[in-house]
Amino acid sequence: MPLGQSSVRPVPTGRTDRARPGAPARRGDTRRRPASGGVRAERLAPYVLVGPAVAVVVLLRLYPLVLGVNFSFTGDGERNGTTVGLDNYLELFRDPLFRTALGNVGLLVLLLPVAVAIPGLLATFIHLRTPGHRFYRSVYFFPAVLSPVIVGAIFNLLLAYDGPLNAVLGGVGLSPVDWLGDPDVAMVTVVGVHVWATFGMGLVVFLAGFATLDSALLDAARVDGASLTQTIRHVIVPGLSRTIQFVTVTTMIGMLTSMFGLLYVMTAGGPEGSTYLPEYYIWIQQGQLNRPALASAASTVLFLIMLVVGLAQISLLRRAGKET
């Protein structure tokens, strides 16, 4: 090579080692690219949206629940603020009124299938477009918008011993019934009024469930000549299993926590304490007898009852849906 001539070869103009913008990465290039701001925002969005709801549940539901359970182990009156262990719970189960309230919870569990079947059957008839179904839909929902106080006052007049219902019974040769004064009848009467006043909400939920039911299954059942009973059992019930679970649990919760207004107006816990429910017992202890610790213990027992009954109902309904 002659002296003074450069030994460095020029780089070809058609090639470059620097990647062009938009060009695909070479094989074997395992360098990680930093996550963009858009990807981070996408990942954080669900937590940001759910965060306020979780905070509300924790602050307004779980925290007061923990405080209530803790307060149930303290005393009332002279022992206010002192730890008493399980004394409040032992006193609860020695109280005949609370035992009556627990017995009425068992009655509610027995009547629950009727309370769920009524809106379910009515929703079935409406979905199958029976004559006048539009009118019935509005009429059936109307009681749900009435206040429990108004409903209780109306039925106090209808169910009075000298009221219209007993007059009708007397007209057909039957003896009058003391609907609200007989301890053996009063609780069933109040539950029946509650079911009448609230089944409209269950009806709406069932109608929403029917909107998700495959209409081809109903058409196939008609073509195969299935009766209404067979259609309900083999097509509608399996197709609405989740809806039935939801209505069952919410109806039971409503019976345990939303009957105070009716009980207060119609019977005030009587006769002879036969219409007591845990909810009404809690109000008596807290609002009239000024025993908040005992009321907290009763509230804890009510919460455990609702939890156990709800889980048991869901388990039974799931098992029944699999068998069907």
From TrEMBL:
The protein, known as: Sugar ABC transporter permease
The keyword Transmembrane helix is assigned to this record: yes
Domain ABC transmembrane type-1: residue ranges: 97-313
Membrane topology note: Multi-pass membrane protein
Gene3D superfamilies documented for this protein: MetI-like (1.10.3720.10)
Protein's cellular compartments: Cell membrane
TM helices/strands, residue ranges: 44-63, 105-128, 140-161, 185-213, 246-266, 293-317
Region (Disordered): 1-37
Keywords of this entry: Cell membrane, Membrane, Transmembrane, Transmembrane helix, Transport
Keyword Transmembrane helix attributed: yes
PANTHER family noted in UniProt: ABC TRANSPORTER PERMEASE PROTEIN, DIACETYLCHITOBIOSE UPTAKE SYSTEM PERMEASE PROTEIN NGCF
Family: Belongs to the binding-protein-dependent transport system permease family.
InterPro entries in the cross-refs: ABC_transporter_permease, MetI-like, MetI-like_sf
Secretion signal, residue range per the UniProt entry: none
Annotated organism of origin: Micromonospora cathayae
Biased composition (Basic and acidic residues): 15-32
Pfam family, one: BPD_transp_1
